[in-house]
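Work Package 4 report. The design task specified in the project plan requires that, given a folded chain encoded as structure tokens, an amino acid be chosen for each position. We show below one input record used in the internal validation round.
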């Protein structure tokens, strides 16, 4: 990757909050018992082309990254990992060298949180969070995304003790959805919202259909080009790419939770051709549906 193209942030549609050190120190001083864990940074980077971070002296925070789409690469203390869609990597606080970056051809879309705490070593040890554990495969984790959004909105409203405390308490729930995935999978977000939220909700409701951009735009009385521009600005992805992405997420759920034939899963998602579905799945997930089913169940 060219050094000129590397960047830490600044991606279209990104969300990013870094809490001021003074705010965290004041919160810990006022109510230390409420902040056994506390968030230091939180972000969402969609299709983060040229994303690159190098931490020569490691990071004093835990870093949890959930890859929703695409892939990225991680080097920790000279060991290299590849992180792909529906995988997360949880790196404990360390002074070891680390470097991570988005794949050049298929850059990752990631939700991530940095957090610290008064006894982070014991916390990590108790949960088995180790430096070289690497990425872990999980079914699509909608609940984590909902909790992430709650945390982000709470911090976005300001740094009162109540907002910080709410975010910190939600952090435990966020972590639990990754560490105890069987108890949290297959929950769906039901609330509507603005045009983009409504479109995504409609996509989910018609996951077995073959929606076009024209169909989606018509619902909001917009031209296809204007609708596509607004949607991409809000999500970092085109409407069709997003719809396919949702289909692949649903495919992961079906493959993980049920023993239906691949042809049946394809039909349930609007694909008449099983082999075309398998090609699309492999393109997005980096492995065939059959391989995903074996891998996800083995890692559960």
């Amino acid at each position: 990757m060219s050094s000129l193209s590397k960047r830490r942030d600044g991606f279209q549609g990104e969300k990013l909050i870094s809490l001021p050190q003074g705010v965290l120190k004041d919160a810990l001083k006022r109510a230390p018992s409420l902040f056994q864990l506390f968030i230091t940074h939180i972000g969402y980077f969609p299709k983060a082309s040229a994303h690159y971070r190098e931490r020569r002296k490691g990071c004093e925070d835990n870093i949890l990254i959930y890859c929703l789409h695409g892939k990225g690469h991680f080097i920790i203390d000279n060991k290299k990992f590849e992180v792909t869609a529906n995988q997360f990597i949880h790196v404990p606080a360390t002074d070891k060298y680390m470097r991570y970056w988005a794949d050049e051809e298929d850059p990752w879309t990631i939700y991530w949180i940095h957090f610290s705490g008064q006894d982070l070593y014991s916390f990590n040890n108790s949960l088995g969070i180790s430096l070289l554990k690497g990425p872990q495969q999980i079914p699509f984790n909608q609940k984590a995304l909902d909790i992430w959004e709650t945390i982000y909105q709470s911090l976005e409203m300001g740094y009162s003790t109540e907002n910080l405390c709410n975010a910190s308490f939600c952090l435990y729930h966020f972590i639990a959805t990754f560490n105890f995935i069987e108890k949290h999978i297959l929950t769906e977000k039901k609330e509507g919202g603005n045009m983009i939220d409504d479109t995504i909700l409609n996509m989910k409701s018609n996951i077995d259909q073959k929606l076009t951009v024209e169909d989606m735009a018509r619902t909001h009385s917009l031209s296809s080009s204007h609708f596509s521009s607004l949607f991409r600005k809000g999500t970092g992805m085109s409407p069709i790419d997003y719809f396919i992405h949702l289909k692949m997420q649903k495919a992961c759920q079906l493959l993980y939770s049920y023993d239906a034939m691949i042809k049946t899963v394809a039909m349930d998602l609007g694909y008449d051709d099983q082999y075309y579905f398998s090609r699309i799945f492999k393109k997005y997930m980096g492995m065939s549906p059959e391989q995903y089913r074996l891998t996800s169940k083995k890692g559960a």
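The CA atoms of residues 87 and 137 lie 4 Å apart. Validation will be extended to a larger panel in the next phase.
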